[in-house]
Amino acid sequence: MATDRPYDDPKDLVRRSYDRISRAYRGDSVSRNWRYFTWLEALTPLVPPGAAILDLGCGCGIPVAQELARRFHVTGVDISAVQIARARQLVPHATFLRADMTTLRFPPAAFAAVVSFFAMIHLPVHEHRPLLERCFAWLHPGGYFMATVGHQAWTGYKDDWYGAPMYWSHADEATYLTWFQELGFAVLWTRFIPEGDGGHVLVCARRPAQYKALHNRYWWRIPGNEDLPT
């Protein structure tokens, strides 16, 4: 049941709840029919083999970090100690950090791609734009960002989600697209991801290469760029 009942610290609630429900939420393996694999198939051909990829909200590492680690150097970040402990066992060839993704510090241009699936939406919405700004800075020029964000604005809780209370908070799609543009991202495409009575939006964006960024922040809107990935 959804509720607006507040908790003292929503991010601590998310941490404690994922510690409790880690295995109920995600097993040690999943079918390759899951939509995550389709999303990664759209991203991975764009990234050079062996490049560094950041997985924000990596959970137990299944399936995203595990799939990416086959071809790339993966760093996964999650707030849950249980999720990170499992990830280190299940995906031993990746690096995993237990941390609040909003407090991370990485050097500029450290990653060729940043992914974040159904994770940023567990942060209070006022933290989303600053995190996107950091992600832009962490990307190589020409690097890619792929994430699920909100379709409609909502903040709230469920008292029982896989056996524990859970919190979500997100803006609407138009707001995210405005943020991406303001921060300098080139939005390559979006896809609506239905879920229950609503859904989320999958966004694939890029930090433009320097010459494109200097030419026009909105170069991706210019006619003639129709060969961008779709």
Structure characteristics:
Rossmann fold, 230 residues, single chain, 30% strand, globular, alpha/beta, three-stranded antiparallel β-sheet
Can you offer a commentary on this structure?
With 230 residues, the protein is α/β, with parallel strands linked by helices. It has one domain: Rossmann fold (3-Layer(aba) Sandwich), CATH 3.40.50.150. The protein is built from seven helices and ten strands. The C terminus is likely disordered.
What Rg, in angstroms, do the CA atoms define? 17 Å
Mean pLDDT: 90
Q: Termini separation (Å)?
A: 37 Å
Q: Proportion of β residues?
A: 25-35%
Order of helices and strands: EHHEHEHEEHEEEHEEH
User: How are strands sequenced across the largest beta sheet?
Assistant: 4-3-2-5-6-10-9
CATH topology (level 3) name: Rossmann fold
**Percent range for helical residues?**
25-40%
Number of domains: 1
DSSP strand count? 10
**CATH homology superfamily:** Vaccinia Virus protein VP39
**Backbone shape:** globular
What is the architecture at the second tier of CATH?
3-Layer(aba) Sandwich
- Count of discrete alpha- or pi-helical segments spanning 4 or more residues: 7
Poorly predicted sequence stretches spanning 5 or more consecutive residues: 211-230
Structural class: alpha/beta
Quick one: biggest sheet? 7 strands, mixed
CATH hierarchy, class: Alpha Beta
